[in-house]
Specification:
Length: 101
């Protein structure tokens, strides 16, 4: 299984509460509809001094499935919504190694 972790920094002028609302209420329904997404977790960072405000985790069957999802209209909408609401977005493609399940 392929996993992407996306580190998000809210845009200037957006409060932490506004970011939380955007991520969990506004963005979540879009992301849930990505073709081929197998699992989706949003983490809202609570530390006031943290460099990032949110961490998204997305699981797909493969890197190819991930890439294909973002070439669709819904994938473009998900990416566009993210870029419109964050100052920075860092994508990390990881090899998850669970230690306790």
């Amino acid at each position: 299984m392929f996993k992407a972790i996306i580190l998000l920094t809210r845009k200037d002028g957006m409060t932490k509460a506004q970011f939380r609302d955007w991520m969990l209420v506004g963005h979540s329904p879009l992301a849930k509809s990505l073709p081929g997404v197998r699992k989706l977790t949003f983490n809202v960072v609570e530390n006031e001094d943290a460099e990032y405000d949110g961490v998204s985790e997305l699981w797909f069957d493969s890197r190819e499935a991930f890439d294909a999802a973002y070439t669709t209209e819904i994938g473009k909408a998900v990416a566009g919504d993210s870029l419109a609401n964050v100052k920075a977005r860092i994508r990390l493609f990881v090899d998850e190694q669970p230690q306790i399940s």
